[in-house]
Amino acid sequence: MSDVITAQRRGLVMLALALGGFAIGVAEFATMSILPYFSREFGVTEAAAGRAISAYALGVCVGAPVIALLGARVSRRGLLVALMAFYAISNAASGLMPGWGGFTLSRFFAGLPHGTYFGVAGLMAASMAPKGKRAQAVSRVMLGLTVSTILGVPLANIFGAQVGWRWSFALVAVLATACATLVWLYAPKLAAATDASPMRELSTLKNRQVWLTLGIGAVGFGGMFCVYTYLASLVMEYAGAPESVVPVMLLIFGVGMTAGQFIFGWAADKSLMGSAAVCLVVSAVAMLAFWAVAGNVWLMAPVLLVIGITGGLSTILQTRLMDLAADAPTLSAALNHSAFNFANALGPWLGGMALAAGLGWPSIGLVGVGLSLAGLVVWGIAMIDDAPRRRGIVPG
């Protein structure tokens, strides 16, 4: 196929990349929703079953830098196909594992391609985008992940309840295979840069701005994950709502996350760091509101929508990292998702500490406020550190 990128072909590639994000979103978030089913089958407590979630997150953190470095000389199309093929196989293995130990190990392996996929997919999307719309192109890739919280997770949950939790992983395997096939058929066949190498990728880590940008996500995103993790328990145990309300709250959250990709994808093309600051401030205010209205699900619903919208921070930081490491962007872009998985561990951990200290369910909102403000502090440090370059005193 010719490598002329027509509008129609660009649309097919973007669809394929978003489909990969959808598959990853289903695997990551749906595993939480089917946890009661596989914990029961394997004969472990739900608390112990949470280690399978942690194993996946650990796989993301390990896989993102390692695969990005090893794949530095591989074409983006070839790397994406390989990552999605591996994702399909590892998730199929999760559905077939007969024992708890093998299942947990398979979740670790399933997490390995996650960060690098989004990093490389974002780079490919940005490379095809019209001038001035790079962040919006990246947001389209992340859109697959957020839409999965609206459509994919409930579907996987139905699979788990009606036909068996193992079929949820079969669904992920089919989606990942479809993504790999579409990328192979339609993505541009661009060879890796002749001077690409692991050492060149590692050189980006000398840039303080890369680390500070990763820090904004690692800290500032923690509050959103804290609220998402404990939302179901808070709705039922504190707000006193029936179990049937939980999916509605999660749906509202997912709608917000999807809207956030559009809103902040557009805003980031106008001002990357400005939109990041707005996102963090909005997050802090929304978390404070969540603390105030946690006992009333009707008041909580619009607040959850806003908290979900702040998930657009992922697109902002992904684009920022690609700009900071334009000559060797794969590692820094992949590490963005390691940072978010660090936030995925940090937020619930701090929230758990607050609950263990007897501060009550609404306290997870205050934890979110603190993490959002901490992310804003890191943002401020990044702006101060970058001031000489913006004034032209230091070469960019």
Automatic annotation (TrEMBL):
Sorted UniProt keywords: Cell membrane, Membrane, Transmembrane, Transmembrane helix
Membrane topology classification: Multi-pass membrane protein
Statement: the UniProt record of this protein carries the keyword Iron: no
Biological source species: Pseudooceanicola spongiae
PANTHER family assigned: CHLORAMPHENICOL EFFLUX PUMP RV0191, PURINE EFFLUX PUMP PBUE
DNA-binding keyword on record: no
Lineage top rank: taxon: Bacteria
GO molecular function, a single term: transmembrane transporter activity
Gene3D superfamilies: MFS general substrate transporter like domains
CDD domains documented for this protein: MFS_NepI_like
This protein's GO CC annotations: plasma membrane
Name of this protein: MFS transporter
Residue span, Major facilitator superfamily (MFS) profile domain: 13-387
Localization per record: Cell membrane
Membrane spanning residue stretches: 12-38, 53-72, 79-96, 108-129, 141-161, 167-188, 209-232, 244-264, 271-291, 297-317, 338-358, 364-384
Main subcellular location: membrane
